[in-house]
Structure formats: structure tokens, C-alpha cells
Design goal:
The chain has 87 residues and is mostly helical. It has one domain. The protein is 45% helix and 5% strand. It has a two-stranded antiparallel sheet with strand order 1-2. 7% of the residues are buried.
Length: 87
């Protein structure tokens, strides 16, 4: 779990099914994800109000699009370095 210092909201990465290939939502999962989404996009020191909202939107996109699409953004060496730091 990751805690947002500004709001004490908690983002739990284990709630997300992020895979190499994306997948659509349906039924109960669709309802749950829509409820988790921020109500609106606001710019307050960054897109969305706090880190929890930003992580939620990122997780939503990764769940739908998949990791393979995400790693094509940015420098592959940066991705490799970030993964290496996970230990």
C-alpha cells in the first residue's frame, strides 16, 4: 500500500490486475473501477489533486492498455533501472 501524504488516502497496488496485455472491464469490475476514478481532472501541483488519484488513473490505464504499451514510452534504460531497483 502507498499512502498519500497530502490526504492520508491509501493506494493499494494489489487491487489492480495489471498485465503485459491490457483487458477491458465489464460487469462488477467496470462498476468498481468507475467508482474509483477521480470525479474530474484538476491541476493542483500536477494532474489530479493528489498522488492517490494520479496512481489510480495510472493503474486504470495500465490495466486497460497493458504494460507492453507503457514501456514503449520513455527510455528503455530508465525502465530497466527502475525494475532493477525493485530488487
Amino acid at each position: 500500500m502507498l499512502e498519500d501524504d497530502d490526504t492520508a488516502l491509501v493506494f493499494d497496488p494489489s487491487e489492480w490486475n495489471i498485465q503485459r496485455e491490457g483487458h477491458p472491464w465489464s460487469g462488477e469490475l467496470f462498476d468498481k473501477r468507475i467508482y474509483q476514478a477521480p470525479e474530474k481532472i484538476e491541476f493542483v501541483g500536477g494532474i489530479f489533486v493528489n498522488e492517490t488519484e494520479r496512481l489510480t488513473v495510472l493503474a486504470m490505464l495500465l490495466e486497460n492498455l497493458g504494460i507492453d504499451k507503457a514501456v514503449r514510452l520513455g527510455d528503455p534504460q530508465d525502465w530497466k533501472a527502475a525494475i532493477a531497483e525493485l530488487g
